[in-house]
Structures are given as structure tokens and as C-alpha cells.
Protein: 6-phosphogluconate dehydrogenase, decarboxylating
Amino acid sequence: SKYDFGLVGLGVMGRNFILNVADNGFTAYGHDLDEEKVNALKEEGGDLQKVDASTEVNTFVQALSTPRKIMLLVPAGKIVDAVIEGLLPLLDKDDIIIDGGNSFFTDTDRRESYLQSKGIHFFGAGVSGGAKGARRGPSIMPGGSREAYKEVKPVFEAVAAKFKGEPCVAYLGPKSAGNYVKMVHNGIEYGLMQLTSEVYDFLHRAAGLSNDDLHDTFAQWNAGRLQSFLVEITAEIFKQQDDQGEGRLVDKILDKAKQKGTGKWTSQNAMDLGIPVPSIDIAVSMRELSALKEERLKADEIYSRPDIRKMDQETAVKIAEEALYFAFIITYAQGLHQLSEASDEYGYELELETIAKIWRAGCIIRAALLDDISRAYDAEKGLTNLLLAPAFVDKVKSTVESARALVSFAAGSGIPMPGLSNSLTYFDAYTSGRLPLNLIQAQRDHFGSHTYERIDMEGIFHTEWGA
Ligand code: 6PG
Structure:
């Protein structure tokens, strides 16, 4: 008999996803050109009635029940197009292709309309949670045709992570809505990671926390309101011994952060939409800055920074916890604001409460905060910025002072905390009824007759400055 679900790309993500599908009562068939990967899956899958695989695309396609549900877990870019072209002549009308990679959203739109013209449904579905998530339950963010989603829904709901029994997957909207939401998920991921690294730096250098102290601190935080996957793994990281030598592994890791583009795309597109996401922008910039290691070493010799003031551990841990919580809120607020604007601009019809809900488990940015966030959007449909949600006012008011204390301490000590300070500055600007950008308007009009509006009169004005 034929298999329920097909998957192309049997790297670790693909292999784990397919095993997850099989664990949940479906039969699944894999395809990869690499024979080793095909064999690895067959071995791990055990019973070939449940999981099988082939290096032959034809065998693969013929093994699937119709309408075929074929998920691609291959690197974003040209490979996706190549795989689609290979499948296309073998498919039947109404078969479904699901791209589970981090494809750029405009590529997904292009592929969707191309495949529509061939009678094939195409889904861009973000999958988050890394290798473990793929195996034990990822968060899945599908977008595409609502009609075709019904076909894949049972499989996705079965394999997805569960938050209190609710599957972390939902149909998000037409076209590239799924890839877009995943892109912003990753932008938020970059922001939260940058913030976590800053707090680590501060606690270590200003308050002298050892790796064991850092482990304890992050583990404690993870038991409170900061509970989140990233805080949890951070605690674990500080414990890891270096198996190549003495000490902890974290201290031996080169401080150059790599990136595959999704954070940068989030920032770039936020600029296109005209939505400020400075906590995400700076996280991308810091990865770029970190990569300039050689230059940093030279500059480090030329310039001296102030001596790092010392702060007692108890105070440091307390203000760091509050500041981190504050900045996490600000980062989610910016990402969700971008999603709300993108929804209007691209016709995604996104429901932000649904997105926050399916981020509560399985994905990299899962956090206790997301339950509060989903409630806030549930209470007020059409809420653009989380900072305007009544339920968040106290959370922000009660932690912002620690963000201020930490930013000024860090500035005085020459510890770079740009994620935190950008988050704070964003907050101060967003909550300022009046900003000094009246001056910018005056300058624009002065040098370029760009005109300005007034606070006391309707209309568009221009002045012959200095005349
Ligand atoms: C996820 C992650 C994942 C992403 C990595 C690496 O949700 O599981 O977002 O999709 O590929 O986080 O991203 P960078 O290499 O850009 O850091």
C-alpha cells in the first residue's frame, strides 16, 4: 500500500521529521540523492512498512498516496527550485508540495504561482525547533492555500509540539505567510540571543559570576517569568565541560557569530515596511561586528575603555533579570508589530494571537511570555504594538528602571550592551508624545524645500529659511 507522507532531503532535520511522522501513526517515504542518508533513514526507521526511502525520485513519487503530500527539507535557494523541477513531471493535479526550509518569502510567492499554473498546491511552511524539535515536535508555520491545508493538517497536528495539548501548528494565511512568519520568528530569535549574550557579559565581567554561578542564575531565571528555551539552553551551556582540554567549553568558543540570513531579511524587510525593529537590527549588526575579529583586536590595542566598575552579585542578578525580561518584551513587540504591518501590506490575514499560540512550544523562541502575548492579542484583535496592551503595562513599568540602570552602568564601564540599549531607546521613543524630529523636518525644508506640517494648523508649509 502507498505511503501517507513524502519527504525530500534526508539530512538530520528531514530524517528526524520523517521518524516523527511515523511515530504518530502515519507511513512516510523519504528521498535523497545521497545513498548513505537513504540507508541511515531505513535503518533508523526499522519497519519498512512504516518508513522507507529511495534515491530514485520516480520510485519515491510512485510510493505516495494521492493527493501526494511532499515536504522539502533542503537548503533554501536554488536547490528548492531544482527539487521542484525534478518532481514536477511526475506529479498529478492537486498534489501538494510543502517547503519546510527557511526560504525567502518572495521565492515562495513565485513558486506558489508557478506551481498553481501546473495544478500543484504549494505551501511555504516554517519549521522551528532544530533537530530535536523535528524529532519530538516542532512548531510549524504553514501558509498557502487554505483548501489544500486540510490535506496536510492531520499529519502536521500529529507531529507538532503540544502546548497543554494544543498542537503548535495552524494555517496562518495565504501565499508566503508561513515563510514570512518564520522569518520574523528568526529575527526575534536573533534579538533574544543577542540580549542573552549581553547579560552574560555583564554578569561575568561586572559582577564576577563564574560559569557555575551563571548556570545557577540562568537555571533560576528559567524557573520564573523568563522561562524560555533560550534561557534554558543557556544555563546548560555554562555547565558543559570542554572535552578537548581543561575548563568549560563556552570559554573556548571563538567569538565570531555566523548567520544564514533570516535575521538580516527580517531587518531589511522591516525597513521596507517602515516598521522599526532596532532590537533585531542591532542583533544582526553585532553578528557582523563579531566577525571583524582581526580589526577588533587591533582596535582593542589602540583604544582603552574605562575600567569596569564592580557590582555586587545579588544586585547585578536582580537588575539583569528585570532588564532581560523588559528587553525580551520589547523584542517580541517589535517582531509582532512587523507581522501586523506585513499582514496588511501583503494580504496575509495574520492572526497574531494564533501566531503567539503556536510559538508557545516547539520553536526556538518559545517562552512563558508567549502565553501572555497570545492572551493580549486575543483580548484585543488588531492590536499593533504589545506596548499598548493593558496586560503589559505593569510588566514593562516594573522592569524598565532596571534596564535604565543596566544601560547606564554598562555605558560607564565600556561594556557593549547595544541590544539592551536599543530596546530601551525604542521604548523611550515609542512612548514619547513629542520627539525632536520637528528639527529634522525644518532641516529638510531648509536645504531642500521638502515642506513640513505644523502642530497648530492644517496644511503643507514651506519657508524661505534665513530670508
Ligand atoms: C529554528 C531556527 C533555524 C535556524 C537557525 C540558524 O527556528 O529552528 O531558527 O531555522 O536555521 O536558528 O540560524 P542562523 O544560522 O542564521 O543563526
About this structure: The chain has a mean pLDDT of 97. Residues 227 and 368 are 5 Å apart (CA to CA). Strands lie at 5-8, 28-31, 51-54, 69-72, 96-99, 121-128, 139-143, 162-163, 166-167. The longest helix spans residues 313-346.
